[in-house]
Fold this sequence. Notes:
Elements: H1 2-14, H2 19-32, H3 36-47, E1 64-68, H4 76-86, E2 91-95, H5 105-109, H6 121-131, E3 133-137, H7 144-156, H8 162-174, E4 180-187, H9 196-212, E5 216-223, E6 231-232, H10 234-245, H11 251-267, H12 274-286, H13 289-300, H14 306-309, H15 314-321, E7 326-331, E8 336-341, H16 343-352, E9 369-372, E10 379-380, E11 385-391, H17 397-401, E12 407-410, E13 420-424
Parallel strand pairs: 1-4, 2-3, 4-5
Antiparallel strand pairs: 5-13, 6-9, 7-11, 8-10, 8-12, 9-11
The site of uracil has 4 residues, from α8.
Amino acid sequence: MSESIRYLVEGVVDGSISDTELISWLKTVHSEGISETDTIALTEAMRDSGETLSWDLAFSELVVDKHSTGGVGDKVSLILAPALAACGLKVPMISGRGLGHTGGTLDKLESIPGFSVEMDSEEIQAQILDIGLAMVGQTERLVPADRRMYALRDVTGTIDSIPLITSSIVSKKAAEGLSALVLDVKFGRAAFMVELDKARDLAISMVAASKGMGITTNAVLSSMDAPLGCAIGNSLEVLESVETLCGNGPSDLEELVCIQGGLLLHSTGLAEDRDTGALMIHDSLHDGSALECFRKMVEAQGGDTSILDSDYSLMAGLGLIDTQLNATSLCVAGSGWVHDIDALSIALACQRMGAGRLELGDSIDRAVGAILEVQIGDRIEEGEPWITLYHRNEIERETVEGLIGSIALSDEEFQQVSRIHEVLG
Length: 425
Ligand code: URA
């Protein structure tokens, strides 16, 4: 079977396999699945369908990346990549754009004036040699098989297949020439995989495929019921990332960054165990070294570093990026301890305000979004604001109505619990 898979993928790229043949194969895999061995063979053939990044042997063991299956307020990449570089790792991070209610790293980075996410392989390799870090979009020449297969999956209802998702995601990461990878697989109401068991199945499959290609891999299963941190929306998330790189980030966000970074530092041998690695990442966020790496990357990729030079506060930063926005706060009708905040309804409200796209290619407003004024476990009194919406046009009634019931209060004191459910690998 492995040989026939390689033959099929070659045919996807050279055009000798027709759309009809490919759709028929995708439908069979979608309905019947394929074995773990064949998933690894498919992932490997897809990785080899185009150019791959290669690294100097002197540091190839230090080349790492992460992937998240997507969430609301998930700005981990923007903080983790420079923190890893500050700890001595090399991070050629190739990311995607937001689609539907989930955000994308490229859209967030492009809210920094002048920042370019377009680099070819030679430029990525040169920047990694120079500063250890690059955050860019997919190049035309990396994993061309995925572009054709994904486009056909999209129109044939075959997206939600574990082996097809696995090979699509892992082949693109493997083409970066990684030594270690960490996967953040989300479950919960605003996740791609809502049910924990399905998210775990996906995590197991991706870990097996990635390890099958010689990449040391871990997966973190983390909950995506409530937004991660307080900022939702592209430029607001950059500002919260900078705040976190200054050591002042929300605790749930910092925890996720430290756990994932700790796993990668341990995988590459730079930390004796993952807890020591997590502490190294924590220190880089509090001693300014991760912020310095972020600054070097913004400079190298043409971005305006003045958002890093301000006497920093979220609101001052907001003024730096866009002064034309309107702010509307929504208040709670009773008093209590915050028990739950619904990430999905907030993401849909932000999408209505223009922060997200329905189809790739739609234009978005990178400035709009929302800031949570409270987090789970906080006490809030009747009439106090729980969320502030930053919008360009008059806010639609449906947007506000969609947020009714999005915050749940409890009469009893409630502690925020870790969103990390388990670590695999
Ligand atoms: N993201 C990808 O790149 N591929 C998939 O199949 C699903 C999400």
